[in-house]
Fold each of these.
Amino acid sequence: MDKLMRNKKAIILFIAPALILFTAVLFVPVCKAVYYSFCNYKLPGNAKFLGFEGMKFLKNYKQLLTKDQTMRIAFRNSMFFMIFSIVTQLIFGLFLAALLTNIRKGRNLFKNIYYLPCVLSSAALGLLWMFVFTPRLGINQMLASLGKWGGDCTLGPQWLFNTEGYIILPIWVVSFVALWQYVGQSMMLYMAQISGISSDVYEASYIDGCSKKQSFFYITLPLIKPMVATAMSLNAIGSLKFFDLIYNMLPEGFLSHKADVIATHLYTSAFKFRKLGYGSAIGVILLILCLIMTVIINKFVKTENYDM
Amino acid sequence: MKMKKFLAVCLSAAMTLSMLTACGGSAAAPAAPAADAAATEEAAPADDAAEAEAPAEEASGDVQEITFMIWDDLEASEDLITKGYKDSVDRFNKDFEGKYHCTPITTNLEEYYDKLNALVAAGDTPDVFIASPGANLNDYATTGVAAKLDDYLAADGWKDTFTSDAVFAGGTYGDDGGDGPGIYAIPLNIAAACVFYNTEMFADAGAEVPKTFSELLDACQKLQDKGYTPITISAGTAWCLSMVAGYLCDRNGLNLQDIKDHKTDWKDEKVIQAGKQIQELSKYFQKTAAGDDNDVATAAFYNGDAAILIQGSWAIGQINGSCAEGFADKVGVFAFPAVDGSSADPNRVIAKSDSLCMSADTESPEAAIQLIKYFVDDTASKYTAEVGGKIPVTNVQYDEKVAPPELKYVMDVFKNASSTFGFYNESLADTEAGSTFDNCFVEIFKGQDPATALDPIQQYYEDNVW
């Protein structure tokens, strides 16, 4: 094996498939998107470079960052969604992971139950939750049948249509649904890391008089820090480019872009209004934000490697 | 070891074979035997102009595949007009079996243009696609995506089968046409936006058919006092609300051309007045108007939960296709009322036509044109009127006794119309302007001051149009 790994031809042969695929599927489209973001490109026409004179090629970015009100709302919603996801998934994911690693009976059953929403189609779940929160159906109907609001379900909260407040109610609702859907993924990551911790470490701590709570905070948490950083990065990137539940659950027309996140704004600009150049600029901003968040998380969540 | 090698070879061979099978499977439908094709020709009705041209005997083995993209599910839809479109495709495929074959690409209305644009961007424009005249069609006709159809219309007197040249107005372009001045879309039928009402509820509440906006408010008040939901509408599907807004702007005397030419702007008193009237009218909307989408809102009328539905005459197809038996007999239709004190023409009607375009890049223009002809031949046009309840665009003789009764009312509204105009959100500078207009009126509906709520559309025109 060592001999093979020293053979340059073999190395190239092994790397080539992944490299070609990565270049064709990811690298080339990203480069093209960056180029299109400097173009006046509106469908069904062709891309036309805006030119270097007077920094015209930055026109889409200037428009996006200075004039676009929807982008401001989308940025605010995306940031809220990201912070909410990182915090709640860290807390609930860890809690569930700690809980499930400590139970003996039914561990696999509960693991599967919590993880199940992750493997279901987001489009289907979006429609399902939309029905749950629609005024005439779901929660409101159920509470009204129990006598709330004088039995009139239309008087209940407008879960998906209330547009008051800095962060509007529909964004809170979608955030909780996303937490329900993806907490199983965080739980699995933490469980994988926790199950890798040697039981000797815990036994030694118990001999030294450590309680279960103390062992969690002084042994489990420090030892799973690398996974916390990974899970936080994944959550941050996933929630920044979050699209499906927002698109499927919320009525686009009535909310007048107040529930837009960056990805839905990208979709609307590029495919509804056919401004591919402008949409590409939003995509580039999104990419930069994802990179920045990954760097920040990796910088601030200090991890040390222990031999477990 | 030998066994392992043998298994590896077998698996590789199976994988390669399956890949080859997958690649070669869908290139073309198998050629129909000549005997079958001849039988098909016999089966075609003789009185049909399009079908008479079907040269089924030329089944050569090379079936020309074409695609047709539409905004409804041809298989699952209960809409009678959609069922008629499906029938046209089926007849085309049957009559041209072995020569041409059409594969429909279907999607829901909300995502239709997004998906069509994605196909256009990918250089895979469907051979035939449906489009609404206005900003959407502009994008295809002025950029060379849609083909000019004048030569095809002139051949064999096809154009003479249409009621008048006026039906082509929405698809006719001047020098801005991608391939020069000409017709870029064939209309299939015309729908007029009218007010549908439940005659039983009106009679029970003692409400009269209103001629003016104040009379409409009076009628709504009477209906509400009687315990009925006066109007069902969707603010969740923004175009529904903006259709009413378009009518009110027009009835107040706004001329869209004046806005385009910047002779006036979106802060015009007539637009603000329309906004205030929307707010007055919204007191009579169903409580869940904010959250209901168009399907839910229209269902409230079809189920007898609301007295008034302001909708395009495509609703006739739905009323007769999916409503309980007997409901259609209770439905009456009237034109959108005039605004009291306004000097604007109260007889203008919002009209919309489903139109078909042919891709400029199609490799089978003859097949595409034949397909389009099947959508406006006598069989299809008769179906449009007698079953679908829409206004046909060809000189077809249809049986008025068989046609839905609502069609007669819509035809009366249409005959009395002095002129027509398009849906506002489809008639503005581009699709983004239309969407911005929709959003402004949603904000007005939610209670924002009309003068302030109109800021985004004013700003959009200042930045992009004027």
Amino acid sequence: MLGPWRSSVSFFFLAIAPFVSAGHSFENTAIVRTVELGGTVVHVTTTYAVKALEDGSNIYTIALGQKEHEATSALTAKIKGQMAPLEVEKLGAQDGDFQLYDIRLPGYLKAGGTTNLVVETVQTHVTYPYPEEASQKDGQSLKYEADLLVLSPYDTAVQRTKIRSPFPQIHSYTEPNVEFTEDAPVTKSGATLTYGPYKNVFPSANKHFVAEKQQRIYVHYSYDHPVLEIVKLERAAEISHWGANLNIQDNIHLRNAGPRLKGHFSRLEHQSQAFFQRSAPHMLPGLTLHLPAGIRDVYFYDLIGNVSTSQLRTAPSVPKGSQNTQFSVLELKPRYPLMGGWNYSFTLGWDSPLADSAGWDQDLGKWIVGVPVMTVIPGTVIDEEELKIILPEGATEVEFFAPFPALNDELSTAVTYLDTTGRPAVTLRYKNLTDTHAGIVYVAYKVPFSAHLKKPLAVATALTGLFVLAFVWKRVDTRIQK
Amino acid sequence: MATTTAYQVPANLSPTAIANTSSLLRIVALALISAAAIASRLFAVINFESIIHEFDPWFNYRATKVLASEGFYAFWNWFDPTAWYPLGRVVGGTIYPGLMATSGVIFYALKAINLPVDIRNICVLLAPGFSALTAWATYMFTKEMKDESAGLLAAAFIGIVPGYISRSVAGSYDNEAIAIFLLMFTFYAWIKALKTGSAFFGTVAALFYFYMVAAWGGYAFITNMIPLHALALILMGRYSGRLYVGYSSWYAVGTLASMQVPFVGFQPVRTSEHMAALGVFGLLQIIAFAELVRSHVSSKQFRALLFASVIGLGLLGTAGIVGMTYKGWIAPWTGRFYSLWDTGYAKKYIPIIASVSEHQPTAWPSFFMDLQFLIFLFPAGVIMCFRQLRDEHVFVIIYAIVASYFAGVMVRLMLTLTPVVCVAAAIAFSTLLDTYLNPEQPEEETPSAAVPSTAAPSETSSAKKGKKAAPAPATLAELVSNATGPESTKRKTGIFGLDTRLLVILNALGMLVFFVWHCTWVTSSAYSSPSVVLASANPDGSQHIIDDFREAYYWLRQNTPEDAVVMSWWDYGYQIAGMADRPTLVDNNTWNNTHIATVGKAMSSTEEVAYPILRKHDVDYVLIIFGGLIGYSGDDINKFLWMVRIAQGVWPDEIQEPNYFTRTGEYKIDDQASQTMKDSLMYKMSYYRFAELFGGQQAVDRVRGQQVPKTGPTLDYLDEAFTSENWIVRIFQVKKEDLLGRDLKSANSFDQGKKKKRSKPSSRRRAIL
């Protein structure tokens, strides 16, 4: 029942599929890659203008370089102008040089038929602070490293890569020697670098090409927001039918992944910067989080107690089915300003009405509860997440549907608050999540009526037992002498 | 009928109905008192949060966490390498584990019924919970002294009296939190044992005595109070079999049990503090033996001989104890004990004890602040005890005298005075209410009218009236005693009419109301601050929390290596260990004077002298408290003279207190401060870059109201690592030795581009030329 998406059988078929279907049945008339630089998260959009060379071709293969593949935490493919994502299958390992993905096109292309394919990927940990240390007065600069050429198993008529920096200052970048162009290999205009156009690139998804022609490029750019990383996020969602409550608690280990603070932190410097409103770009004074509407009893504490420096504006619950545009806004400040390289771990939790996220499915005869995977902190990567959903005591036939596959999942039992048999709990583990992963995990389960009565019965039995004992003890004369 | 009662009382109530009603009322009253006792201690949680207060509780909390997470045996054998670095501390053998064990048992019990409660919340709420038990124990104790109504009054008093609340608010997780309950219950069991001559109650007293020994160092108070009481009874000629059985069972079982606590060990037979109990135990055996012999022998001469031999044996025993003390088999009185008799003793010989504010003699307003009108009723109650002077009344009288003395000597011993004040005041107050609520009027001059028929209704009325007032004055015991024989004792004295009654009762109720008001006010304003978190008010009146301590501690915890050693004055040792989780040099368990003096020396010496000390102790960070920016007066500069004094005690040649004063003998930090003061590490760290904050204007230290020199001190051997938002906590990192082998001062001036001063400029080059 666990993990209905994990179909190893189809995986096996698709693993041998490329050798069947991915003959040279396509040609790229143009590949345009746009890289939006950021802090720990970099968004890459690649548009393939595809022309089919054979009739009935519908499996298009794309390639990512090995490093690119390792850094990619999400990949979605679409036909340009359409919303529906296409089916993407990862192929078997390719000797550690590149990674192939098969994309199933919505229809069969005839020979000469064209389509525009948009592949969006999110890369994490592809930038690093450079210089690695910055004092409180210094700015913050990052370096982005990537492959120059977009790999593809097909011939490519023309390809170019645009790299856009969010801030105008680009300190330096690689000017490569490329054989596929006569013009300047790279041009810079404002905050945008354009590598290419490179013409007539022959099929590049092979070992030889990667070894001979591929190059690494870097961009050194200024970045004026703090670079954040959540080293570990533990989210526990506890569903209570008796309390009509969904409690969500996040244990967050936050780290400033910007340049390490050079020397020491001077409060004087910090206060005078704040006074003149010229705070260090790598310093994080606080976070603004968008929590769900209708929440209550929000708590924010760390290992040594409550943190009093936060502001919360709650929004009322939204009726089910209507568009949710409102959020409860929480502005939280760590105990100390988070300088480069500093850590801060804390716990954030809240209660919300169960009705806001739960529903009764008439057809299945089951309860369905939606639990968000995470609270989005824009531009922040979550290195590791453990999502634990604790269902009501006595829940049976547990099924869950995740928006994207988890690294692993397990079903366990959590015992708390006067439980007798314990509550089933679903644990999902993830790595390298970004704001594109802000989905909802749906859990479906049945709770028989008798399960609801477990707790009151147990408590009543225990108390009755106590009273009976007291009664007996009071009435029975245990004296030896009268 | 109408002539003999002051007000109408209902008739025709059966005695069982009265008994049941008053019993129910007592239970309800006790429940309400418990609720009030718990509720009034929750100010700290409501105004702030569920947090551990002060200093010592942080250690107890940390130890409890070890107990809860690693189990009892790990806790028992716990060696803490992070305290007293590099010495470490054997925690299991140097603490009173009762408090932690209590929390641990509660924690595991709740866990066993699948009710997981955070151990912190158990620790925070333990003291309020036990205060409810204290109220109950005081009720039981006072009931033995007078009656149930006095008991209820005493319970109500102890429930909300500030003298006890000061040590038992939520979050004040200290030994005293449970100790007062144990104290009162042990005393109750002792009185009960004495009254009934029951070995059972003697053993109950012993078991609670054991619990007390395991919980608080103040158990010595019980160890000496009970023998003192027993001795007083013997001297008063009140020796009885009940005393013998009660005392012997208490002493034998209690002493053996108390020796099971590792921290106590063989002290009960080897230290002077415990010798009184042993001596009285011996004396009782001799007397019992003599009594036995006397009951069998009638010869007068033999009796005289026996008397002489008893005295002789007693003297021999005393001489033996004194002799053993001289020989060193029995440890003499400790310094802490001497400081109870000579208030100047500690200042002369043990400055560490004297430096603690709660070891200072009590100022008289604090008696009123902590006890309010009880302090006036207290002597009255003690005198009431002389009226009947039963055995248990002697106990209260002795307790009152001894505790009054101790409370005058040391502020913290106010705590031991508070219960007896509540008991005595309750006796006095309840006697007053009894007198004025009693509907019976004294007989007028007219010869006796037929009284018998009025007796029963009058008592019922008094019971009835008792329900209205919170303290039920006339209860079962009185009822029964009155019902049996009022006819024979026709009252000659008493109160006439309702007006006098109303006047006095209303006045008394008014006092009670003011007492409640006062207690609430003192509790909320004076005793409910966690001291880890400071509160101030925003301009709009809302509460603003100053959270610098936790800010800095948490920074240490999250952003320094786990084995980084932090040096600070000992006050903050437990907090650093608890909140920052880092090794400390010294902490509030002030067992090693030299180690503390070393820290004092490092703080009060120049950087050059301090640096080798810091390096030898592997110190990575130095943490100081500085209140100059926002006016937090409990900071290190104000404690600095104690550091100097304690260091001077060990190194009188290197550190001298007078050097830290100006020529006119003032303690100053401005331009006139002495050079020694200005060069001291503490001064330098406190005012490092402080003047720059004022941007060219005159910098003012708001605690001392003095102007800080414009050019602040410079540091060569340390580096500022972190300063909290309001500058209360400043953390400095100790620099490592220079890589090029220079001393750090010249390395620093080289970095700043300063030229080295040369005494003989380029003489060598000239010689070559």
